[in-house]
Model the fold of this input.
Amino acid sequence: MVDVPASVEARRVLDDDDVRRVVARLAHEIDDRVRADARGPLAVDAAALALVGIRTNGAHLALRLADELARVRGSRPDVGLLDITLYRDDVLAGGAMPVLRGTEIDFDVEGRPVVLVDDVLYTGRTVRAALDALLDLGRPSLVRLAVLVDRGLRELPIAADFVGRAVETARGERVRVQLREEGHAEDGVHVAVGVERRRR
Amino acid sequence: MTTKGVLSLPHLMGIEGLTRDDATLLLDTARSFIEVNTRQLKKVPALRGRLVALMFFENSTRTRLSFELAAKRLSADTLSFSSSGSSVSKGETLLDTAANIEAMKPDLVVVRHEASGAPWMLERVMSGAIANAGDGNHEHPTQALLDAMTLLHRSQRQPKDGLAGKTVCIVGDISRSRVARSNMLLLPLLGAKVRVAGPATMLPAGLRDVYDVEVFDDVDEALCSGAPVDAVMMLRIQKERAARAVMGSDDDYAVGYGLTKDRFARVLARNDAALVMHPGPMNRGVEIDAEVADSPHSVILEQTETGVAVRMAVLYLLALGHSRGVEGGAA
Done:
């Protein structure tokens, strides 16, 4: 992945420090919510919480959230990595070339509360595909959604339960999430004007 | 994983013409499908609504079943055509049959034919992407891919690491074997050393000039000299084909070239992790002893299992390339 070139006009919405703080806050929110769900009528098994990150950036964020949750809760939740390529609705319809990386979920999701994690929530189509992929693996007791950035412009009835930062964007803009795990010097989220390589 | 997620060729006519990147992409993709095949629900929607025509002009059970299952696990629809009991037995030509299947607009065409080169004939009249499921004594690319995948899996290597340092000995009727031909191309492409062995009557002249292989007419020398062998790949003696004229009796063949218990013990003495492979169906007691075929060193059933994932990868990547207009000469 390339860094945002200097020639492209881009506004920064999260810097390195922001990303760290936002991830820590999301971990607390997830923990609070799971505890509430355990006490409430849903009576979920809070100890069985699992995070499932959508590859690639969602997977990195899920691993970071798990580290934070380990600090908050004293125990690290299971983390799975989900490849949704085979569930996309446009895989044979052109667009960016999908690269299959494989799903790595070495635990049973059956009956467990799962938090799905992605970097950017946009049209909602990625989340739709992720839900199909996840539900093919078993029947979680509930699924919630955590995203680093919600950029709006939904095309499906999907909403996030945990949002790191809500950002207003236009169709032609592109939200770029850069994480250290992908070889970037520091974390950052930029909104760039220009040719949109459409995320789903 | 290769960043370029598509094959450089529009069809899988053979291993010939594949680049190392293509082979790595196919095997990496197959690894993802191996994971899918371990799930309780072994199906993904990737090829939903696509039509796969399975055109088997030559008898085949395991390859046809394997491709059919692969297509179904990708949620594709399948059209199954076998020549026995069809219009082919009433005298219809290959091209007429193909034109009729083409009218049903398959997105992918899997073809098995007793004539070498038949997939190229189909390419002229069919618009879908073609996967060669074995043509005459020419190539059987998906068999070689699943053999390579089985070897990688057993040596706990990633496709990008290849098979460098591994020695594979292919034994049998090399001249009539499409499995041998595809493996003689793929295994060296992945960095393995390949030896081929068989009776002189079953070894084509000039093999060494065309393939990166060592050639032996003494199977014991092939198995037990030089670097220890990591895998022995036994080929089926095709008694129904011309092989009968050049192989002598079943017993003569077993003594001279079969993988007997004693012969395999000598291989194990040099490498106790050596594997036994066979593309099937086996002639027990001819090219392979039952005891060897059923031993813990045998990966024959693993080959069949891996075959489904490899064929899912082939169908998926061909469909992907087809939808994106990958062009280029058929190779």
Remarks:
- The interface with chain B takes residues 83, 85-87, 91-94, 97-104, 132-133, 136-138 of chain A (CB under 8 Å).
- Residues 19-88+98-166 of chain A form a domain with the Rossmann fold fold (CATH 3.40.50.2020).
- Residues 15 and 188 of chain A are 5 Å apart (CA to CA).
- Chain A has a mean pLDDT of 91.
